[in-house]
Amino acid sequence: MSRPILYDYWRSSAAYRVRIALNLKGIDYESRQVDLREDAQKAEAYRALNPQGLVPMLEIDGLRLTQSLAIINYLDLKYANQPLIPASAAERAHVVAMAMAIACDIHPLNNLRVLKYLKNELGHSQDEIDRWYAHWIAEGLPALEAMALPRAGKFLFGDAPTGADVCLVPQLYNARRFNVPLDDYPTLLRAEENANQLDAFAAAHPDRQQVPA
Q1: What is the pLDDT of residues 54-89, one digit of tens each?
Q2: Among 1, 38, 167, 210, which residue has the fewest nearby CB atoms (within 10 Å)?
Q3: pLDDT tens digits, one per residue of 142-160
Q4: CATH says 89-200 is which class?
Q5: Which CATH number fits domain 5-82: 3.40.50.2000, 3.30.420.280, 3.90.950.10, 3.40.30.10?
């Protein structure tokens, strides 16, 4: 069986999630960097593989999988070790809701292509863009803290990492890049600290990836 290939970008939050999930599942994979700064994702050759022209994309088991949450769901169903989404309907809904609060409500508003559009097409200053970025994180994290608090343990749900933590860690990495205060979110910070002590999370960190020249 051929080695899985992750079409990756070192600082992409969505790709960061998939790196964590692959590591948690113990899957050896090849990372191929798609440089979003140079719009490599828009190249004809890449769009032939992934019509959306986004990262990540994972080639695995003869498939080309896109969208980070869909990839994580596939990995969780395919590989039973280290489950990322609980089995019971109620617990599954809770964990998926927390993951989506990040992946669907916070992250898309702050995606690199959105920030580029604000700057290049709409002419916003970098200060305005930074304020935009911080605003949407500050809008989303209080709700996530409240969602997690009743059922959190060492992680956002209980004492083992789930798909919610896989989404949380990249989001807090981005928050710090833009100097967003995080002191009001002790549940999130505890989960992040415990997650980053695990090799699977640490190895996926952007600073440990190959950076395109």
Answers
A1: 999 999 999 999 999 999 999 999 999 999 999 999
A2: 1
A3: 999 999 999 999 999 999 9
A4: mainly alpha
A5: 3.40.30.10
